[in-house]
Specification:
nine-stranded mixed beta sheet, two-stranded antiparallel ribbon, Helix Hairpins, elongated, alpha/beta, single chain
Protein backbone atom coordinates (compact mmCIF):
# COMPACT_ATOMS: atom_id res chain seq x y z
CA UNK A 1 0.00 0.00 0.00
CA UNK A 2 1.22 3.47 -0.86
CA UNK A 3 1.79 5.94 1.94
CA UNK A 4 3.53 9.23 2.59
CA UNK A 5 5.95 9.29 5.49
CA UNK A 6 5.54 13.03 6.03
CA UNK A 7 2.26 12.71 7.89
CA UNK A 8 0.21 15.92 7.97
CA UNK A 9 3.04 18.12 6.67
CA UNK A 10 2.17 20.21 3.60
CA UNK A 11 4.55 19.55 0.72
CA UNK A 12 6.10 22.62 -0.95
CA UNK A 13 5.97 22.16 -4.73
CA UNK A 14 7.71 24.27 -7.35
CA UNK A 15 6.76 24.26 -11.01
CA UNK A 16 7.17 26.39 -14.11
CA UNK A 17 4.52 27.98 -16.28
CA UNK A 18 4.56 26.16 -19.61
CA UNK A 19 1.71 24.99 -21.77
CA UNK A 20 0.18 22.44 -21.26
CA UNK A 21 2.04 21.34 -18.11
CA UNK A 22 1.10 24.30 -15.91
CA UNK A 23 -1.03 27.24 -17.05
CA UNK A 24 -2.82 30.02 -15.25
CA UNK A 25 -6.55 29.69 -14.74
CA UNK A 26 -7.60 32.70 -12.75
CA UNK A 27 -5.69 32.55 -9.47
CA UNK A 28 -5.01 28.83 -9.83
CA UNK A 29 -3.00 26.58 -12.13
CA UNK A 30 -4.11 23.84 -14.50
CA UNK A 31 -2.39 21.45 -16.87
CA UNK A 32 -0.82 18.04 -17.20
CA UNK A 33 1.57 18.42 -14.26
CA UNK A 34 -1.20 19.83 -12.07
CA UNK A 35 -3.38 16.79 -12.83
CA UNK A 36 -0.37 14.52 -12.22
CA UNK A 37 0.36 16.16 -8.85
CA UNK A 38 -3.29 15.90 -7.81
CA UNK A 39 -3.43 12.19 -8.73
CA UNK A 40 -0.15 11.42 -6.93
CA UNK A 41 -1.23 13.31 -3.81
CA UNK A 42 -4.43 11.26 -3.62
CA UNK A 43 -2.48 8.02 -3.89
CA UNK A 44 0.10 9.04 -1.27
CA UNK A 45 -2.41 10.97 0.87
CA UNK A 46 -0.54 14.26 1.27
CA UNK A 47 -1.39 17.95 0.89
CA UNK A 48 0.68 20.40 -1.08
CA UNK A 49 1.27 24.08 -1.72
CA UNK A 50 2.32 24.77 -5.31
CA UNK A 51 4.14 27.89 -6.50
CA UNK A 52 5.84 28.99 -9.72
CA UNK A 53 9.65 29.03 -9.78
CA UNK A 54 10.95 32.54 -9.07
CA UNK A 55 13.47 32.90 -11.91
CA UNK A 56 11.37 31.03 -14.52
CA UNK A 57 14.10 28.47 -15.24
CA UNK A 58 14.25 24.70 -15.21
CA UNK A 59 17.67 24.34 -13.64
CA UNK A 60 21.24 24.71 -14.81
CA UNK A 61 24.53 25.59 -13.12
CA UNK A 62 26.12 29.01 -13.41
CA UNK A 63 29.84 29.74 -13.72
CA UNK A 64 30.37 29.22 -9.99
CA UNK A 65 28.62 25.85 -10.04
CA UNK A 66 25.43 26.97 -8.28
CA UNK A 67 22.09 25.67 -9.48
CA UNK A 68 19.30 28.00 -10.57
CA UNK A 69 15.67 27.37 -11.50
CA UNK A 70 13.54 24.62 -9.99
CA UNK A 71 16.55 22.37 -9.39
CA UNK A 72 18.18 25.22 -7.43
CA UNK A 73 15.09 25.69 -5.26
CA UNK A 74 15.03 21.97 -4.44
CA UNK A 75 18.77 21.94 -3.72
CA UNK A 76 18.52 24.98 -1.40
CA UNK A 77 15.53 23.51 0.44
CA UNK A 78 13.10 26.16 -0.78
CA UNK A 79 10.89 23.44 -2.26
CA UNK A 80 10.32 19.79 -1.32
CA UNK A 81 9.71 18.59 -4.89
CA UNK A 82 9.67 20.01 -8.42
CA UNK A 83 6.80 18.80 -10.61
CA UNK A 84 7.40 19.96 -14.18
CA UNK A 85 8.70 18.68 -17.52
CA UNK A 86 12.15 18.20 -16.01
CA UNK A 87 14.42 16.08 -18.18
CA UNK A 88 16.26 13.38 -16.28
CA UNK A 89 19.98 13.98 -16.93
CA UNK A 90 23.18 12.67 -15.37
CA UNK A 91 24.15 16.17 -14.21
CA UNK A 92 20.84 16.81 -12.47
CA UNK A 93 21.02 13.37 -10.81
CA UNK A 94 24.18 14.54 -9.01
CA UNK A 95 22.28 17.42 -7.41
CA UNK A 96 18.82 15.95 -6.78
CA UNK A 97 17.05 12.60 -6.76
CA UNK A 98 14.59 12.06 -9.58
CA UNK A 99 11.68 9.64 -9.86
CA UNK A 100 10.74 7.21 -12.59
CA UNK A 101 9.79 9.22 -15.65
CA UNK A 102 6.11 10.08 -16.04
CA UNK A 103 6.52 10.91 -19.73
CA UNK A 104 8.94 9.71 -22.38
CA UNK A 105 10.25 12.08 -24.98
CA UNK A 106 13.19 12.75 -27.27
CA UNK A 107 14.61 15.42 -29.54
CA UNK A 108 13.04 16.37 -32.83
CA UNK A 109 12.34 19.59 -34.73
CA UNK A 110 9.41 21.46 -36.18
CA UNK A 111 9.17 23.67 -39.22
CA UNK A 112 6.51 25.09 -41.45
CA UNK A 113 4.60 22.56 -43.52
CA UNK A 114 5.52 24.14 -46.83
CA UNK A 115 9.21 23.64 -45.94
CA UNK A 116 8.78 20.03 -44.89
CA UNK A 117 9.12 17.09 -47.22
CA UNK A 118 6.93 14.15 -47.99
CA UNK A 119 8.89 12.13 -50.50
CA UNK A 120 6.96 10.89 -53.50
CA UNK A 121 5.90 7.30 -53.30
CA UNK A 122 5.91 4.82 -56.14
CA UNK A 123 2.11 4.91 -56.31
CA UNK A 124 1.66 8.66 -55.84
CA UNK A 125 -0.34 8.93 -59.05
CA UNK A 126 -2.88 6.49 -57.62
CA UNK A 127 -3.04 8.46 -54.37
CA UNK A 128 -4.65 11.40 -56.18
CA UNK A 129 -7.93 9.49 -55.84
CA UNK A 130 -8.96 7.82 -52.60
CA UNK A 131 -9.50 4.06 -52.48
CA UNK A 132 -13.25 4.64 -52.33
CA UNK A 133 -13.02 6.82 -55.43
CA UNK A 134 -11.14 4.19 -57.42
CA UNK A 135 -13.68 1.56 -56.34
CA UNK A 136 -16.49 3.87 -57.44
CA UNK A 137 -14.87 4.37 -60.85
CA UNK A 138 -14.41 0.61 -61.25
CA UNK A 139 -18.04 -0.09 -60.38
CA UNK A 140 -19.19 2.66 -62.75
CA UNK A 141 -17.06 1.20 -65.54
CA UNK A 142 -18.41 -2.34 -65.03
CA UNK A 143 -22.04 -1.20 -64.82
CA UNK A 144 -21.74 1.01 -67.91
CA UNK A 145 -20.14 -1.77 -69.96
CA UNK A 146 -22.83 -4.24 -68.94
CA UNK A 147 -25.59 -1.70 -69.69
CA UNK A 148 -24.17 -1.00 -73.17
CA UNK A 149 -24.14 -4.76 -73.80
CA UNK A 150 -27.74 -5.15 -72.57
CA UNK A 151 -29.01 -2.19 -74.59
CA UNK A 152 -27.33 -3.45 -77.76
CA UNK A 153 -29.02 -6.82 -77.24
CA UNK A 154 -32.46 -5.43 -76.37
CA UNK A 155 -32.84 -2.54 -78.83
CA UNK A 156 -34.15 -3.48 -82.30
CA UNK A 157 -32.18 -0.55 -83.74
CA UNK A 158 -28.94 -2.41 -82.93
CA UNK A 159 -30.18 -5.89 -83.78
CA UNK A 160 -33.31 -6.11 -85.96
CA UNK A 161 -33.34 -9.87 -86.67
CA UNK A 162 -31.43 -11.93 -84.07
CA UNK A 163 -32.08 -15.18 -85.93
CA UNK A 164 -30.27 -13.92 -89.03
CA UNK A 165 -28.00 -11.06 -87.97
CA UNK A 166 -24.90 -10.89 -85.80
CA UNK A 167 -24.31 -8.30 -83.07
CA UNK A 168 -21.23 -6.10 -82.96
CA UNK A 169 -21.63 -5.35 -79.25
CA UNK A 170 -20.48 -8.49 -77.55
CA UNK A 171 -19.69 -8.28 -73.86
CA UNK A 172 -15.93 -8.04 -74.53
CA UNK A 173 -16.44 -5.28 -77.11
CA UNK A 174 -18.67 -3.38 -74.66
CA UNK A 175 -15.88 -3.41 -72.05
CA UNK A 176 -13.36 -2.30 -74.67
CA UNK A 177 -15.68 0.41 -75.99
CA UNK A 178 -16.14 1.85 -72.48
CA UNK A 179 -12.36 2.00 -71.95
CA UNK A 180 -11.90 3.71 -75.31
CA UNK A 181 -14.56 6.29 -74.44
CA UNK A 182 -12.90 7.02 -71.09
CA UNK A 183 -9.54 7.62 -72.76
CA UNK A 184 -11.26 9.88 -75.33
CA UNK A 185 -10.16 7.58 -78.17
CA UNK A 186 -13.31 5.74 -79.11
CA UNK A 187 -13.46 2.08 -80.11
CA UNK A 188 -16.04 1.69 -82.89
CA UNK A 189 -18.52 0.63 -84.00
CA UNK A 190 -20.67 3.10 -82.09
CA UNK A 191 -24.26 2.51 -80.89
CA UNK A 192 -26.96 3.33 -83.41
CA UNK A 193 -29.97 3.22 -81.11
CA UNK A 194 -31.12 6.23 -79.10
CA UNK A 195 -30.85 4.18 -75.91
CA UNK A 196 -27.22 3.25 -76.60
CA UNK A 197 -26.32 6.82 -77.52
CA UNK A 198 -27.84 8.13 -74.28
CA UNK A 199 -25.66 5.78 -72.22
CA UNK A 200 -22.48 6.50 -74.20
CA UNK A 201 -23.10 10.27 -74.06
CA UNK A 202 -23.53 10.17 -70.29
CA UNK A 203 -20.40 8.00 -69.98
CA UNK A 204 -18.38 10.47 -72.10
CA UNK A 205 -19.54 13.32 -69.84
CA UNK A 206 -18.67 11.27 -66.75
CA UNK A 207 -15.22 10.51 -68.20
CA UNK A 208 -14.52 14.15 -69.05
CA UNK A 209 -15.39 15.34 -65.53
CA UNK A 210 -13.38 12.50 -63.97
CA UNK A 211 -10.30 13.21 -66.10
CA UNK A 212 -10.57 16.96 -65.47
CA UNK A 213 -10.61 16.37 -61.68
CA UNK A 214 -7.72 13.91 -61.89
CA UNK A 215 -5.48 16.23 -63.90
CA UNK A 216 -6.38 19.20 -61.69
CA UNK A 217 -5.29 17.18 -58.65
CA UNK A 218 -2.18 16.06 -60.52
CA UNK A 219 -1.23 19.65 -61.35
CA UNK A 220 -1.63 20.73 -57.70
CA UNK A 221 0.38 17.73 -56.51
CA UNK A 222 3.23 18.42 -58.93
CA UNK A 223 3.26 22.13 -58.04
CA UNK A 224 3.41 21.52 -54.28
CA UNK A 225 5.95 18.72 -54.64
CA UNK A 226 8.34 20.93 -56.61
CA UNK A 227 8.19 23.61 -53.90
CA UNK A 228 9.19 21.27 -51.10
CA UNK A 229 12.65 20.63 -49.76
CA UNK A 230 13.85 17.30 -48.49
CA UNK A 231 14.19 17.93 -44.75
CA UNK A 232 13.01 14.95 -42.75
CA UNK A 233 15.91 14.18 -40.40
CA UNK A 234 18.69 15.89 -38.45
CA UNK A 235 21.15 14.81 -41.13
CA UNK A 236 19.03 16.55 -43.78
CA UNK A 237 18.94 19.62 -41.55
CA UNK A 238 22.72 19.67 -41.11
CA UNK A 239 23.37 19.15 -44.84
CA UNK A 240 21.41 22.19 -46.05
CA UNK A 241 21.84 25.93 -45.62
CA UNK A 242 18.47 27.29 -46.74
CA UNK A 243 16.66 26.68 -43.46
CA UNK A 244 18.04 28.15 -40.25
CA UNK A 245 17.74 26.06 -37.10
CA UNK A 246 18.27 26.45 -33.38
CA UNK A 247 17.12 25.55 -29.88
CA UNK A 248 16.92 27.07 -26.41
CA UNK A 249 20.34 28.15 -25.17
CA UNK A 250 21.81 26.06 -22.32
CA UNK A 251 18.81 23.71 -22.39
CA UNK A 252 19.16 19.92 -22.19
CA UNK A 253 18.50 19.85 -25.95
CA UNK A 254 21.39 22.25 -26.56
CA UNK A 255 23.70 20.28 -24.25
CA UNK A 256 22.81 17.04 -26.03
CA UNK A 257 24.29 18.35 -29.28
CA UNK A 258 27.16 20.03 -27.44
CA UNK A 259 28.26 16.82 -25.71
CA UNK A 260 27.50 14.41 -28.57
CA UNK A 261 30.28 12.51 -30.33
CA UNK A 262 28.09 12.00 -33.37
CA UNK A 263 29.62 14.10 -36.20
CA UNK A 264 26.22 15.18 -37.54
CA UNK A 265 24.94 16.27 -34.13
CA UNK A 266 28.17 18.09 -33.36
CA UNK A 267 27.92 19.96 -36.68
CA UNK A 268 24.45 21.08 -35.63
CA UNK A 269 25.87 22.38 -32.33
CA UNK A 270 28.69 24.23 -34.11
CA UNK A 271 26.24 25.82 -36.54
CA UNK A 272 23.86 26.95 -33.78
CA UNK A 273 26.75 28.38 -31.79
CA UNK A 274 28.24 30.18 -34.80
CA UNK A 275 24.94 31.52 -36.13
CA UNK A 276 23.67 32.36 -32.61
CA UNK A 277 20.31 30.96 -33.72
CA UNK A 278 19.04 30.46 -30.19
CA UNK A 279 15.51 30.89 -28.88
CA UNK A 280 14.86 32.30 -25.42
CA UNK A 281 12.03 29.85 -24.82
CA UNK A 282 9.80 27.37 -26.62
CA UNK A 283 7.17 29.96 -27.55
CA UNK A 284 9.79 32.08 -29.31
CA UNK A 285 10.98 28.97 -31.18
CA UNK A 286 7.42 28.24 -32.28
CA UNK A 287 6.96 31.82 -33.51
CA UNK A 288 10.20 31.68 -35.51
CA UNK A 289 9.18 28.38 -37.09
CA UNK A 290 5.80 29.84 -38.08
CA UNK A 291 7.34 32.90 -39.71
CA UNK A 292 9.43 31.04 -42.26
CA UNK A 293 12.76 29.36 -42.85
CA UNK A 294 13.50 28.24 -39.31
CA UNK A 295 13.47 24.81 -37.69
CA UNK A 296 13.08 24.76 -33.93
CA UNK A 297 14.73 21.83 -32.12
CA UNK A 298 13.19 20.70 -28.86
CA UNK A 299 11.49 17.96 -26.88
CA UNK A 300 9.19 15.92 -29.11
CA UNK A 301 6.20 16.10 -26.72
CA UNK A 302 6.42 19.90 -26.61
CA UNK A 303 6.72 20.01 -30.38
CA UNK A 304 3.66 17.75 -30.73
CA UNK A 305 1.73 20.30 -28.70
CA UNK A 306 2.88 23.08 -31.03
CA UNK A 307 1.75 21.06 -34.05
CA UNK A 308 -1.63 20.51 -32.35
CA UNK A 309 -2.00 24.26 -31.72
CA UNK A 310 -0.40 25.80 -34.81
CA UNK A 311 -1.79 24.09 -37.87
CA UNK A 312 0.87 25.35 -40.29
CA UNK A 313 3.65 23.49 -38.43
CA UNK A 314 4.76 19.90 -38.73
CA UNK A 315 7.17 17.76 -36.74
CA UNK A 316 9.95 15.75 -38.35
CA UNK A 317 9.41 11.98 -37.98
CA UNK A 318 12.89 11.38 -36.55
CA UNK A 319 13.29 11.37 -32.75
CA UNK A 320 16.75 11.08 -31.17
CA UNK A 321 18.17 11.07 -27.65
CA UNK A 322 15.24 9.39 -25.94
CA UNK A 323 14.82 10.58 -22.35
CA UNK A 324 12.08 11.08 -19.77
CA UNK A 325 10.47 13.75 -17.59
CA UNK A 326 10.67 13.14 -13.85
CA UNK A 327 9.80 14.70 -10.50
CA UNK A 328 12.82 16.07 -8.61
CA UNK A 329 13.35 15.83 -4.85
CA UNK A 330 16.34 16.53 -2.54
CA UNK A 331 19.14 13.98 -2.42
CA UNK A 332 18.28 11.12 -0.10
CA UNK A 333 14.61 12.13 0.15
CA UNK A 334 12.35 9.23 1.21
CA UNK A 335 9.66 10.69 -1.08
CA UNK A 336 11.32 9.51 -4.30
CA UNK A 337 10.52 5.81 -3.85
CA UNK A 338 6.83 6.42 -3.09
CA UNK A 339 6.49 8.98 -5.88
CA UNK A 340 8.02 6.53 -8.36
CA UNK A 341 5.62 3.77 -7.34
CA UNK A 342 2.66 6.15 -7.60
CA UNK A 343 3.74 7.19 -11.11
CA UNK A 344 4.00 3.53 -12.16
CA UNK A 345 0.49 2.88 -10.80
CA UNK A 346 -0.86 5.84 -12.81
CA UNK A 347 0.89 4.57 -15.93
CA UNK A 348 -0.40 1.01 -15.54
CA UNK A 349 -3.97 2.20 -14.92
CA UNK A 350 -3.94 4.39 -18.05
CA UNK A 351 -4.39 7.67 -16.18
CA UNK A 352 -1.19 9.16 -17.61
CA UNK A 353 -2.44 8.36 -21.13
CA UNK A 354 -5.73 10.06 -20.30
CA UNK A 355 -3.93 13.19 -19.05
CA UNK A 356 -1.88 13.25 -22.27
CA UNK A 357 -4.90 12.91 -24.56
CA UNK A 358 -6.67 15.61 -22.52
CA UNK A 359 -3.95 18.25 -22.80
CA UNK A 360 -2.54 17.37 -26.21
CA UNK A 361 -5.86 17.39 -28.06
CA UNK A 362 -5.43 18.90 -31.52
CA UNK A 363 -7.39 22.00 -32.50
CA UNK A 364 -6.48 21.66 -36.17
CA UNK A 365 -8.90 20.60 -38.84
CA UNK A 366 -7.29 18.19 -41.30
CA UNK A 367 -5.96 20.46 -43.99
CA UNK A 368 -2.98 20.28 -46.28
CA UNK A 369 -1.62 22.53 -48.97
CA UNK A 370 -0.90 19.42 -50.94
CA UNK A 371 -3.75 17.95 -52.96
CA UNK A 372 -5.90 15.64 -50.85
CA UNK A 373 -7.14 12.36 -52.38
CA UNK A 374 -10.44 12.97 -54.12
CA UNK A 375 -13.37 11.12 -52.56
CA UNK A 376 -16.66 9.96 -54.18
CA UNK A 377 -18.65 12.46 -52.12
CA UNK A 378 -16.91 15.27 -54.01
CA UNK A 379 -18.33 13.96 -57.31
CA UNK A 380 -21.57 12.41 -56.11
CA UNK A 381 -23.48 14.53 -58.62
CA UNK A 382 -21.73 13.05 -61.66
CA UNK A 383 -22.09 9.52 -60.25
CA UNK A 384 -25.82 10.14 -59.79
CA UNK A 385 -26.08 11.51 -63.34
CA UNK A 386 -24.38 8.38 -64.68
CA UNK A 387 -26.78 6.13 -62.75
CA UNK A 388 -29.76 8.06 -64.13
CA UNK A 389 -28.31 7.85 -67.64
CA UNK A 390 -27.85 4.08 -67.38
CA UNK A 391 -31.39 3.66 -66.12
CA UNK A 392 -32.76 5.91 -68.87
CA UNK A 393 -30.83 4.00 -71.55
CA UNK A 394 -32.16 0.64 -70.40
CA UNK A 395 -35.70 2.08 -70.20
CA UNK A 396 -35.49 3.47 -73.76
CA UNK A 397 -34.15 0.15 -75.06
CA UNK A 398 -37.11 -1.67 -73.52
CA UNK A 399 -39.48 0.92 -75.05
CA UNK A 400 -37.89 0.38 -78.47
CA UNK A 401 -38.31 -3.38 -78.13
CA UNK A 402 -41.85 -2.95 -76.83
CA UNK A 403 -42.74 -0.82 -79.86
CA UNK A 404 -41.45 -3.51 -82.24
CA UNK A 405 -43.14 -6.29 -80.25
CA UNK A 406 -46.42 -4.40 -80.41
CA UNK A 407 -46.23 -4.22 -84.23
CA UNK A 408 -45.43 -7.93 -84.49
CA UNK A 409 -48.22 -8.78 -82.05
CA UNK A 410 -50.77 -6.82 -84.13
CA UNK A 411 -49.57 -8.51 -87.34
CA UNK A 412 -49.50 -12.07 -85.96
CA UNK A 413 -52.51 -11.66 -83.67
CA UNK A 414 -50.53 -12.54 -80.56
CA UNK A 415 -50.21 -10.93 -77.14
CA UNK A 416 -47.58 -8.23 -76.86
CA UNK A 417 -46.09 -9.79 -73.72
CA UNK A 418 -45.56 -13.19 -75.36
CA UNK A 419 -43.94 -11.61 -78.40
CA UNK A 420 -41.70 -9.43 -76.24
CA UNK A 421 -40.71 -12.43 -74.11
CA UNK A 422 -39.85 -14.42 -77.23
CA UNK A 423 -37.84 -11.51 -78.62
CA UNK A 424 -35.82 -11.18 -75.38
CA UNK A 425 -35.19 -14.92 -75.31
CA UNK A 426 -34.02 -14.89 -78.93
CA UNK A 427 -31.78 -11.86 -78.39
CA UNK A 428 -29.93 -13.33 -75.41
CA UNK A 429 -29.76 -16.89 -76.75
CA UNK A 430 -29.32 -16.38 -80.44
CA UNK A 431 -26.82 -14.48 -82.51
CA UNK A 432 -23.08 -14.92 -82.73
CA UNK A 433 -20.24 -12.54 -82.34
CA UNK A 434 -19.11 -11.13 -85.64
CA UNK A 435 -15.87 -12.71 -86.81
CA UNK A 436 -13.25 -10.79 -88.80
CA UNK A 437 -14.42 -12.55 -92.01
CA UNK A 438 -18.05 -11.67 -91.46
CA UNK A 439 -17.02 -8.15 -90.55
CA UNK A 440 -15.28 -7.76 -93.88
CA UNK A 441 -18.37 -9.14 -95.71
CA UNK A 442 -20.65 -6.73 -93.90
CA UNK A 443 -18.42 -3.82 -94.87
CA UNK A 444 -18.44 -4.99 -98.46
Amino acid sequence: MLFCILGPQVLRVTTIKEEPYAMSKGSELEGFCIDLLSAVSKKLDFKYDIKLVKDGRYGTTDDSGNWNGMIGEVVRGEADIAVAPLTLTAKRETAVDMTKHFMQTGLSFILRKDLASDDSQFLSLLNLFSTEMWMGVLVAYLLTSVCIFLVSRISPCEWEQPEKETNFFTLSHSFWYTVGAMTLQGAGPHPKALSGRVITSIWWLFSLVLLACYFANLSLWLHSDNQQQSVKSFEDLANQNLIEYGTIKDSSSFNFFKNSNNPTYHRIYEHIKKAQSYSLNAEEGFRKAQKGSYAFIGESVSLDLAVARYCNLTRAPEIIGMRGYSIAAPLGSPLVKNLSVAILHLSESGELDYFHSKWWASSCVAKNDKSAPLKPTSLKGIFLLLALGLGLGLFLALLELAAKSSKIANTQQKSCCSVMSAELSQRFRGGKAMTPESSEKSKA
